[in-house]
């Protein structure tokens, strides 16, 4: 377990945490403000990646492609909210789970029909290609550093929006006292639509950032959606600060567990047994962490009042 490998995996964990935050931030706001369980949030991550690839094929410019894909992700989120999700507001959570699961199946198949089943890719922009020297003998891709920087910038802007603006005040109030907000004359439907569209755009942005380093394919958001739900449970439903900190924790724990669990098990078990137990333990670590947090803090580490 070298220091160099530890440094690389720490950065990889930070990068995964940033992507998880971009997905979980919108998801926790939708769940916290609207009391709406949206299993289809991962589809919006997938859609953002496909929009970015399509825009790049049309323009040949990475930045223009990202801007166009952001607008398309926002419009797509608002369209889904108007066509499907607004009709599920106030319904039982089981109805929402079943309906949004149906949306996942429908849109995954739609992606296969439109873009085909084969994985696509988005080229890394030339300005962010190559690697930089972090320490003697340690190179790290510039684009991955760019993902971390972009995610941190979005987190800062989102915090300023939530904590320092009137819109943010309404969102925070809606996360804890939605009926009171509606009783004060606020158009709660418009607030919900805005939150939903913004959440979709954040998930789409995560998909765009991941597209140059991961395969763009149908169902690409399903696994990350599970991790995003773990993030909002640990961080606290409706809490953006909780989503940020929990995403970093989950990213670090998941990455380090998959990298070093087998080596750690070899300290206590035979090599063959460690090779079997290590990967299994690594895949369980984040769920064990979630169970521990729920046991001691059922509302999460940072409930919505601390947003």
Provide an overview of this structure:
The protein has 307 residues and is mainly alpha-helical. It has a single domain, classed as ABC transporter involved in vitamin B12 uptake, BtuC (Orthogonal Bundle). The protein has ten helices and two strands; from the N terminus they run H-H-H-H-E-E-H-H-H-H-H-H. A two-stranded antiparallel ribbon has the order 1-2. The protein starts with a helix and ends in an 11-residue tail after the last helix.
How would the blueprint of this fold be written?
Elements: H1 3-34, H2 41-59, H3 62-83, H4 93-115, E1 131-135, E2 138-141, H5 142-164, H6 166-183, H7 188-210, H8 222-235, H9 240-265, H10 271-296
Antiparallel strand pairs: 1-2
Helix pairs in contact: 1-5, 1-6, 1-7, 1-8, 1-9, 2-3, 2-4, 2-7, 3-7, 5-6, 8-9, 8-10, 9-10
Spatial separation of the terminal alpha carbons: 37 Å
- The overall pLDDT, averaged over residues, is 85
Report the order of strands and helices. Answer: HHHHEEHHHHHH
- Helix/strand/pairing category: mainly alpha
What spatial form do the alpha-carbon principal axes imply?
Answer: globular
| CATH top level assignment | Mainly Alpha
What's a concise summary of this model?
The chain is mainly α and 307 residues long. The chain has helices at residues 3-34, 41-59, 62-83, 93-115, 142-164, 166-183, 188-210, 222-235, 240-265, 271-296; strands spanning 131-135, 138-141. Helix content is 74%, strand content 3%.
Key features?
ABC transporter involved in vitamin B12 uptake, BtuC; two-stranded antiparallel sheet; mainly alpha; globular
């Amino acid at each position: 377990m070298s220091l160099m490998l530890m440094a690389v995996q720490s950065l990889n964990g930070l990068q995964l945490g940033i992507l998880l935050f971009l997905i979980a931030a919108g998801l926790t706001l939708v769940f916290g403000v609207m009391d709406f369980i949206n299993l289809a949030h991962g589809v919006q991550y997938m859609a953002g990646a496909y929009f970015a690839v399509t825009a790049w094929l049309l323009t040949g410019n990475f930045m223009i492609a990202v801007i166009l894909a952001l607008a398309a992700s926002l419009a797509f989120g608002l369209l889904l909210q108007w066509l499907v999700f607004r009709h599920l507001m106030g319904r039982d959570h089981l109805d929402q789970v079943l309906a949004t699961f149906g949306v996942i199946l429908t849109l995954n198949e739609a992606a296969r029909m439109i873009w085909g089943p084969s994985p696509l890719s988005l080229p890394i922009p030339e300005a962010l290609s190559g690697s930089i020297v972090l320490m003697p003998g340690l190179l790290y891709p510039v684009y991955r550093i760019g993902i971390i920087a972009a995610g941190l910038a979005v987190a800062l802007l989102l915090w300023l929006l939530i904590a320092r603006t009137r819109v943010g005040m309404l969102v925070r109030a809606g996360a804890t006292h939605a009926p009171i907000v509606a009783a004060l004359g606020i158009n709660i439907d418009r607030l919900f639509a805005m939150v939903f569209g913004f959440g979709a755009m954040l998930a789409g942005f995560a998909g765009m950032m991941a597209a140059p380093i991961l395969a763009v394919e149908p169902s690409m958001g399903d696994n990350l959606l599970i991790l995003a739900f773990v993030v909002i449970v640990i961080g606290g439903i409706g809490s953006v600060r909780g989503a940020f900190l929990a995403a970093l924790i989950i990213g670090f724990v998941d990455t380090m567990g998959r990298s070093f669990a087998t080596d750690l098990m070899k300290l206590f078990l035979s090599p063959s047994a460690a090779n079997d137990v290590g990967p299994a333990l690594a895949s369980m670590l984040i769920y064990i962490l979630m169970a521990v947090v729920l046991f001691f803090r059922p509302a999460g580490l940072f409930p919505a009042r601390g947003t």
